[in-house]
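Input sequence (100 aa), recorded before submission:
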Amino acid sequence: MTTETTSYSYSELKRAYKEAYNAGDPWGSNISALFNVSAELWHRGAHIPWEYSPGMASDPREPDDYLYEACAGASDANLLRFGAVLNRFDEYLRFKELNY
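Predicted structure, token format:
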């Protein structure tokens, strides 16, 4: 793993997510955030405890995405905690068949 940063807290990650959350597309909002968290963890070489594949990209992070700065500035621990919540919400949305 790389050096931990702490400029973005878990609460700030949640706040950034809530600000961009689209209630009309809960699964799309959630999976986008989960991909951002996962891409940052992958870039750092951290273990990702949920299913994630970066595909063919040499760097799967998306600098233009709304969560990029927050994810890049958060510690591994905060990303893992936030990602676990997002992953659990993804499971719930899939169970409710709100994914596509």
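Checked by second reader. Residues 76-95 form the longest helix (20 residues).
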